[in-house]
Specification:
Blueprint: E1 8-9, E2 18-27, E3 34-41, E4 47-48, E5 65-75, E6 82-84, H1 100-111, H2 156-174, H3 181-198
Antiparallel strand pairs: 1-4, 2-3, 2-5, 5-6
C-alpha cells in the first residue's frame, strides 16, 4: 500500500538499536496543522513488520483529524538516524557513523524538531504549546510545540520516548569535554526542556 511503510530488516550488531513509529495527524487548526507523536517498536529477528497509518493516536482530537501518515525511525547512539517512509520498498539498512558534532542533531531528528529551530535556540525557551494557541500571543521565536511534536500528555508511551530522548541529550553532555562548556550547557538545557515537555 502506498501509505504504509514496508517491513524493515534492521541490523542490530550491539543490541542497542531503538526503533520508533512516528504517527502524523493533520487537522483544521492553528499552525502547525500537522502534529506527531512517537511510540517504540520491537525488533523480532531483526525485523519490524509493515506499519500502516492510524487514526486516533492522540496527536489531535479524533474529530479534527483530516489526514494521517506514518514513518519508522531507527536510532543507534553514535550513528546517523535511519528513516523509512511510506510507499517505498524495503532497502538494506547500513549504519553510518555520526561525527561528534552531528550526534546532537540526530536526537533532534528522532523527535522531528526542524533544523531551522536551532537558529531560534529553542532550548532557551520554556517548552509550551504552539504560539498560535496561546491567548494574547505576539510575534516571537517558535516554541517547542510549534515543531509539531506533541507533549507527553498524549500517551504514556510517547512520554516514555520523550524521556528517553532527554536522557540521550544528558548522556551526550556527559561525554562532551569539560572544555566545551557552551556545548555541554546547551545539551543540558535541551534535556531539561524535553523533560519539561514530557510532563506537559
Amino acid at each position: 500500500m502506498p501509505d504504509s511503510v514496508a517491513e524493515q530488516t534492521i541490523p542490530n550488531p550491539d543490541g542497542d538499536v531503538r526503533v520508533f513509529r512516528v504517527d502524523f495527524e493533520e487537522g483544521e487548526r492553528p499552525e502547525p496543522r500537522t502534529r506527531h507523536c512517537l511510540s517504540p517498536l520491537v525488533l523480532v529477528d531483526l525485523k519490524v513488520p509493515a506499519q500502516f497509518p492510524q487514526r486516533g493516536v492522540g496527536a489531535l482530537p479524533l474529530s479534527e483529524v483530516r489526514k494521517t501518515s506514518v514513518v519508522v525511525r531507527a536510532y543507534r547512539r553514535g550513528y546517523k538516524l535511519f528513516e523509512a517512509k511510506p510507499g517505498g520498498a524495503a532497502e538494506p539498512w547500513r549504519w553510518e557513523p555520526a561525527y561528534r558534532g552531528e550526534q546532537e542533531a540526530v536526537i533532534e531528528q528522532l523527535l522531528g524538531i526542524p533544523p531551522e529551530f536551532a537558529k531560534y535556540e529553542w532550548w532557551e525557551t520554556i517548552a509550551r504549546k504552539p504560539l498560535a494557541e496561546l491567548a494574547g500571543s505576539r510575534p516571537c521565536p517558535p516554541f517547542l510545540g510549534d515543531s509539531g511534536l506533541m507533549p507527553g500528555s498524549v500517551s504514556p508511551v510517547h512520554r516514555h520516548v520523550l524521556l528517553y530522548a532527554a536522557d540521550e541529550f544528558t548522556d551526550l553532555s556527559r561525554r562532551t569535554a569539560w572544555a566545551e562548556k557552551e556545548r555541554r550547557g546547551r545539551l543540558e538545557k535541551k534535556a531539561e526542556q524535553i523533560r519539561r515537555w514530557a510532563d506537559e
